[in-house]
Amino acid sequence: MTKRIVTAAVTGGIHTPTMSPFLPITPEQIANDAIKAHEAGAAVVHIHARDPHTGKPCADMDVYAEIFDRIRSACDPVICATTGGAIGMPVAERIKVVPTHYPELASFNAGSVNFGLFEIPERLKIDEWRFDWEKTYLYATKDLVYTNTFASLEEFARLFTESGTKPEAEVFDSGMINNLAYLIQKGLLKTPLYLQFVMGILGGIPATIESLMFLAQTAQRTFGNDFQWSVCAAGRFQMPMCVAGLLMGGHVRVGLEDSLLLERGVPAKSSAEQVEKIVRIMGELGYEPASPDEARDILGLPPR
User: Fold this and answer.
1) Domain residues of the chain, as ranges?
2) CATH for 3-299?
3) Which of 79, 101, 126, 196 has a CA positioned 20 to 30 A from the CA of residue 218?
4) CA 131/CA 246 separation, integer angstroms
């Protein structure tokens, strides 16, 4: 298969405004970054919402509505809404976007995990923060679990099915593949699955080629060939792991959610810059970015 899906995760719930002047915060900024990423070759845009005044991740349905409307008025990528939201956000807040806005695709976090962001302030050596919430938000992850219990997984699966939204299963470690197999066995999830291997998070599987091979092989032993998979990786591991994923037959995710850099020491001014880079690399390797309609066909989504 020469066609590969490129996803752009444009703002996320990890990085904070002080870390980069290019991180989109307002609905207009987030939508514009998604539109530019689509124009650069992303078939899927992965969307988080933020408070437009403070940049803090939020679950405001009106903010989501504005972002989605702005994107759809300009182009037609597959919109993948987050149900991860942010570390510490209540589960009920995280899932609301699915039964409210019925996105084609939404993230489905496949299990609980430690999700450590507390080392970032010391690593970046930031003296002054733009907003009071930022440093507290990051340090709080030292004593928080990113909670996705079996009860919440079952409830999420039910709401996804009722809303006609396909899950993009976020896999932070290999045990989460077993969780997904359980949900399939119970008839709560349907195949073919779409897996997103999330690598390099403190608390999750490390971003190495050996780990990626292990995840892909474990998924194949578990689901046969009845799944598609993609890879994303944190920080400096973003591009190397995406290239490895391409060579192994997977799809890729880039964007400012996962890394604020274009290359070592060079800030990315937009998610579109990262999309342009991975699309160029894909071309050198003989692959092509799938269009949104081709991505829908690959993932088994209804045609628009």
Assistant:
1) 3-299
2) 3.20.20.70
3) 79
4) 38
